[in-house]
Each structure stands twice: as C-alpha cells, then as structure tokens.
Amino acid sequence: MSNQYDEIITKYRFEEGNIISLLQDTQNKFGFIPQDAIFYFARTLEIPVSQIYGVATFYSQFYLKPRGKNRITVCRGTACHVKGSERILMKIKKEIGLDTHEDTTAGLEFSVDEVACVGACSIAPVVIINNKMYGKSSPDRLIKEIKAIMK
Length: 151
Fold this sequence. Notes:
Layout: H1 2-9, H2 19-30, H3 35-45, H4 49-58, E1 70-75, H5 78-82, H6 85-96, E2 110-115, E3 127-129, E4 132-134, H7 139-150
Parallel strand pairs: 1-2
Antiparallel strand pairs: 1-3, 3-4
Helix pairs in contact: 6-7
C-alpha cells in the first residue's frame, strides 16, 4: 500500500501547507482516506498525525471510512426540514437497510449524507441521488428511484 501512497505524496514532499490537496488526492484514489495513509503521510512528511486528522475531520468533504457506490444526500436545512426531510431521510434509510445512526450499507452499495443546506430552498425538500437533484421530493418518488438503482 505504501507504493500507492508514495505516488500521491511525491508532489507534496517538499511543499508545506498542502495537507488538503494531499487528502483530496488520497480520497480521489481510494474513495476515502485510509487510516494507515494518514500515519504514513505523517511519518514520511514529519507532520503530526493530529494535524492531518484535524484537517481530515474539519472538512465535511473528507471521509475516513469507505463510502457506498451510490450516494444519497438529504438536505436538512430549514425549508427542507419544514417540508418533511426527516421523514424522507428515515424512509430512505429503512428502504436500504440502515439504522438511524448508520450512513453506509454493509455491502457499500449506498451511503446517505445529511447536509445543512444544498441551496435549493425554493424546491424543498431536496434529495440528491448520484448527483441528480430531486426537488419537491416525496418519500414514494425517492423510494421508486432507489429501487430502480437496486435492480
């Protein structure tokens, strides 16, 4: 695995302040940031592990565990909340077999993310499935889309 990490780390070895770029490249390659990559980068670049973890956990774009092949994003902003996004979220999780505290299915088929706002309040509630936005969503419509993906 360290050979793959070496490919990523090469362009960052002599430049300071590129932890975000290093983590972005790592996540692009693996789909998440493996824990052993963080320790390898810290040791190789002589950066405290806590500094790399600090960046990785501060930005919501980074994931420290594998994500599902299909991504579902549920807006939980005020407009979406008022229009029933919590009910939608619970129905989606039930349909794909997730407990309320889980975000990725065991077989890595689906990941569900809750976000504060997607900036589409006029079409609330909003759910994004694999980069396709569904506005004025209903649980039935979204479950139909998810079942089509499952087939």
